[in-house]
Write a sequence for this structure.
């Protein structure tokens, strides 16, 4: 558990640094003020109390929806093409206060690339989404069609999370 916590702290610090760099670049060009920061871990285990028992809940591709009596604000990613949601978690004893972390892949990266030879950069440009990545980067494996439909995912878990904001991608940075 201590090693996992250290890995989670490292990941959180990494995301904070990426966020700070991106915000600096954006704010230098547009007068905006960042809003609330939402931190959503989606691969972890936690010691929790359920049904009057202490248990370890392992969330793989899933997130906790509440912290005590407080409903958590969480991110539910779709894909770099289809958008994502910000939601407010709902308590559910049956689901151990958990909802899915997002759309999830419907096809493996290599299989998708073999079956869908397309110029994803051109597709995203036509959709009005700015894609920034190194020229040699393989971005096809992150295409929207490689993921489950985020709208269906949200419908399936409507008792676990309330959608608050639907985010539409305007720009994607991929390394």
């Amino acid at each position: 558990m201590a090693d996992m916590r250290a890995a989670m702290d490292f990941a959180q610090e990494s995301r904070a640094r990426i966020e700070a760099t991106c915000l600096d670049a954006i704010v230098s060009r547009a007068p905006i003020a960042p809003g609330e920061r939402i931190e959503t871990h989606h691969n972890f285990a936690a010691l929790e109390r359920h049904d009057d028992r202490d248990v370890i809940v392992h969330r793989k591709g899933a997130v906790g929806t509440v912290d005590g009596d407080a409903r958590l604000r969480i991110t539910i990613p779709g894909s770099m093409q289809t958008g994502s949601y910000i939601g407010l978690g709902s308590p559910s004893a049956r689901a151990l206060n958990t909802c899915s972390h997002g759309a999830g892949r419907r096809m493996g990266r290599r299989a998708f690339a073999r079956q869908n030879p397309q110029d994803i950069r051109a597709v995203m440009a036509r959709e009005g989404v700015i894609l920034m990545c190194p020229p040699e980067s393989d971005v096809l494996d992150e295409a929207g069609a490689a993921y489950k439909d985020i709208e269906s995912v949200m419908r399936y878990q409507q008792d676990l999370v309330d959608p608050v904001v639907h985010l539409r991608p305007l720009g994607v940075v991929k390394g």
Helices lie at 2-27, 109-115, 120-126, 150-156. The CA atoms of residues 55 and 92 lie 16 Å apart. The chain has two domains: 1-35, 38-173. Residues 2-27 form the longest helix (26 residues).
